[in-house]
Amino acid sequence: MRASELRSLLVAKVKRGSLVYTDQFKGYDGLVAYDFRYERVDKTTRFANGRVYLNGIEGFWSFAKERLAKFHGISVSHFPLYLKDHQFRYNHRPNCFPSMLQAVKAFVEDHH
Fold it and tell me: Where are the beta strands (DSSP E) in the chain?
C-alpha cells in the first residue's frame, strides 16, 4: 500500500485527533498534518515503548492470516465478516464456543 492510500484510509476511518500507534513504516509520516497524534515503535529493536506496543496487533494478524489462508481466497465483500469472526475468536480464546453460544442465545432472545 502506498503512503497516500494509507493516509486516505486513516482520514476516512479514524477520528481526527486520535492517537495512532504505528511501526516505523514511512507511510505514516505526515499524520500530524491531518490532526492525528502518533507514537512509533521501532520493531527492529523492540515491540514496545512504554505503554505503546505492537504485539497485540501482530498476534491478531498472525492468528487471522493462518486461519484465512485455509479459505484459498475470500471475496472483498465478505472479508469484513470473516475478519470480525476472527476478531471474536481471537478475543475469546482458547475455546470460544461457550461465548458464541451465549451471543447467539442473546441475539435470538432479543429478536423474538
Answer: 19-22, 37-40, 48-49, 52-53
Sequence-distant (≥ 6) Cβ neighbours of residue 64 within 8 angstroms: 83, 86, 87, 90
Output phi, psi for 39, to 5 deg. -125, 140
Tens of pLDDT, residue by residue over 25-77, are 888 888 888 888 887 777 666 665 666 666 667 778 888 888 888 888 888 89
Residue (of 21, 26, 30, 18) closest to 57 by Cα position:
21
Check: CB of residue 37 under 8 Å from CB of residue 20: yes
Among 41, 34, 29, 39, residue whose Cα is nearest residue 3: 29
Nearest to 38 by CA among 46, 83, 30, 86: 30
